[in-house]
Design a protein that fits this description.
Family: Belongs to the ABC transporter superfamily.
CATH topology of the largest domain: Rossmann fold
CATH superfamily of the largest domain: P-loop containing nucleotide triphosphate hydrolases
Protein name: Taurine transport system ATP-binding protein
Number of domains: 2
Bound molecules: adenosine-5'-triphosphate, magnesium ion
Keywords: ATP-binding, Cell inner membrane, Cell membrane, Membrane, Nucleotide-binding, Translocase, Transport
Strand order of the largest sheet: 6-7-8-3-9-10
Order of helices and strands: EEEHEEEHHHHEHEHEEHHH
Distance between the termini: 49 Å
Number of strands: 10
Organism: Salipiger aestuarii
CATH architecture of the largest domain: 3-Layer(aba) Sandwich
Shape: globular
GO molecular function, one term: ATP hydrolysis activity
Helix content: 40-55%
Number of helices: 10
Length: 268
């Protein structure tokens, strides 16, 4: 079976003081190859935990997870991760960062050079390949991170707030780039974001998670990612359904936050 299958995943963190946190409870999800899923939810609802379990960095307390029909038991090259920021190798130039995966896999330069140059072109950094990481802007660094992930040719790209640290304009350009890469490469993508607009623009599927315990609250199937491949993202945002769904989700998350605050106040 191709794609990702998450079957009743639960995750409990046992703390040194004897208490525990139920970070995820009974989360099930099937993602077909080539789908783009965005994940939203209040802080602490288990988004990063879920992504870390899919990446194989964490083993769930219970439940099963399969990738292309094989059980996930640890990290693997078919699942690539793009972090929020700061995950580049500062001591390497741009091209060495992007070619890191193929080089670590023992591939000769002639086998990866063309692909790496193509990826640098796609993310608009051909003229920057000899630059050091510290010479790049935040947006450029995230484009290097995307190209580095793609150089490993993963089936699934996992992104935890990849655009969260960028200014509004750069973020918008990066959103278009993510959509373009998704359509061109046909990769499966899971993207965590705190921005409802971003989740709507990029997710053909959108998951709203709820906290305590972390679980799936609501799932949407949306037309905006497909529209955004062809249209300007600003035009997509003017779609009446876009505004309506954004308000619905904002209200949903607002209510969850209120509930958390209320609970915290009464337990103090
Ligand atoms: N290693 C850990 N040890 C103990 N508790 C943890 C650990 N990792 C996460 N948690 C707890 O699990 C819950 C979910 O955390 P997680 O980081 O997945 O949330 P999140 O949805 O990504 O939040 P945010 O939006 O703030 O990034 C939180 O209550 C957190 O405190
Ligand atoms: Mg997180």
């Amino acid at each position: 079976m191709s794609g990702l299958s998450i079957d009743r995943i639960s995750m409990r963190f046992d703390l040194p003081n004897g208490s525990s946190v139920q970070a995820l409870k009974d989360v099930s999800l099937d993602l077909a190859a080539g789908e783009l899923l965005s994940v939203l939810g209040p802080s602490g609802c288990g988004k990063t935990t879920l992504l870390n379990i899919v990446a194989g960095f964490l083993a769930p307390t219970s439940g099963k997870i399969q990738m292309n029909g094989h059980a996930v038991t640890g990290p693997g090259a078919e699942r690539g991760m793009v972090f929020q920021q700061g995950a580049l190798f500062e001591w390497m130039d741009v091209r060495d960062n992007v070619s890191f995966g193929p080089r670590m896999a023992g591939k000769r330069e002639r086998h990866w050079a063309e692909h790496v140059d193509h990826l640098l072109d796609v993310v608009g950094l051909r003229d920057f390949k000899a630059k050091a990481v510290y010479e790049l802007s935040g947006g450029m660094q995230q484009r290097v991170a995307l190209a580095r992930c793609l150089a490993n040719d993963p089936d699934v790209i996992l992104m935890d707030e990849p655009l969260g640290a960028l200014d509004a304009l750069t973020r918008e350009k990066m959103q278009s780039l993510v959509l373009k890469l998704w359509k061109e490469t046909g990769k499966t993508v899971i993207l965590i974001t705190h921005s409802v607009e971003e989740a709507l623009l990029l997710g053909e599927r959108l998951l709203v998670m709820a906290p305590r315990p972390g679980r799936i609250h609501r799932e949407y199937r949306l037309p905006f990612a497909d529209l955004g491949v062809a249209e300007d993202l600003r035009a997509v945002k003017k779609h009446p359904d876009f505004a309506r769904t954004r308000e619905e989700i904002l209200g949903m998350i607002w209510d969850m936050e209120e509930e958390i605050m209320g609970r915290t106040e009464t337990t103090q």
